[in-house]
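[09:14] KT: can someone run the structure on this one? pasting the chain below
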Amino acid sequence: MPGLVSGVAGDRSGSPDLSRYYAQKIKWAACEGETEALAEATGHAKDVRCGKVRVPIDYADPRGGDVEVAMIRMKSSASGEPRGSLLLNFGGPGGPGVSALAGSQKEFGFLSKGYDIVSFDPRGVGQSDPVSCGDLGTDPLDSGLGDQSPGAVLTELRKAAKVCEDKSGPVLPHMGTVNVSRDLDVMRQALGDKKLNYLGFSYGTRLGAVYAAQFPKKVGRMVLDGVDTLTEPVAEQSLVTAEGRQTALDNFLEWCTGNPGCVFGTDARAARDGMVKLIHDMDEMPLRSMEGEEFTGQDVVGVLSQALYSRQAWPALSQALGALLADGDPRALIRMSGGPMGGADGPRVDVPMDNMSAALMAVNCADDPDRPDAARIEKEVGKLREEFEEASPVFGKSMLMPVLLCFGRPAGTDFIRERVRDVKTPKLLLVGTRGDPATPYRWTEETARRLGSQAVVLDNKGDGHTGYLGSVCVHDKVNGFLLYGETPKSGSSCPVDTRAQE
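[09:31] RB: done, structure tokens below
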């Protein structure tokens, strides 16, 4: 397949010359703006540095321009030389790694005894040329769905896809995991590591699996926690995600209404209805800033999508929603999303409010070779809307949009389905959580079978999305594997751990 050669320079086969990318050295400096503020809030701003690495927009034609990938490093606390870097991907697709690590240094402090802890905003995400689809979250398809002709529906889909293209720029067609994996290898070299040591959560497990297939000889110690599917089409993935996010929201509202001062009161069912009404009302009448920027109900959905899976973020989310409902002030929610901020705290970083959802859509479309034909869209769109609304009255609309808008884009790669299998790497540790609301345990089993004999499964009997931060047992076994090479026996399990959930 074109663009998958892993060499660092041109060769006789005509592979593009990538030597200037692989020869980079990262210049680390003090973080600024929102990243610095997040780090200061943890009390560890002095321990982190930020930098950038350049990667080609198109690996098949590196002359076509570059993307600057934003990175962050938490220096190792080892008394001697660390064993290298440990790269983290926090999931998504579309999750920013720079702000995530800046705000969660304590959680990875033990791993810093052996590694420099590094994360990054993947291409098209956060501070790395963020993509956007503008205000498509308000459902641009309503005008087309009133007419039963396939042409009207397809026209609206193509218009919507063109809006994304215009607002995102040249990086949009090159957003898939195959390209992010190649970026990961450039980062590995720029960090000075012979092997990639890696911890990926949720979507980050797909990225890790693709890297293992593309660069098997460069894999060091790799953990995949909350294992994503490598085979299911966008529609199935999106429906599972909508259901999982709704479960996470219901759990949050149950927790919130059980604590004094919850802005939604004390009744969890009424709180759920109140959340649906809030989003509907804000879509109808968005808040508007002094600069004229709108904050819609779908913007709230975007923030919830990022904040809900981390239980540690629930108190801050509760306070931010309280400020929104009581005072009409969305600034705390915007800060949680990594959206546009600025002023006295540092330079403005313009990350579109819809960046996470736009990036999720771009990556999932690029990773999926399936494209429905016109007749199927016209026939099934009504049924799909009902299924997604039933799965989640809050997230259903936003998760259906990526399914429909893939139609307006070129068919994605078949590399992941066809070639990510039977990898020839060192042992890979896969963590699956039985009660995971976003990545069902069967995906761990399916992915392990695809990756082959090198995949070792750790069965976490608990709940929550991913296991490392929700189970002391998983935490210890992952640390043992990454720091000391202690590989659990395949089929090992961790019990439900109530201590980690307190």
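[09:33] KT: thanks! The first strand starts at residue 48 and ends at 56.
[09:34] RB: yep, looked fine to me
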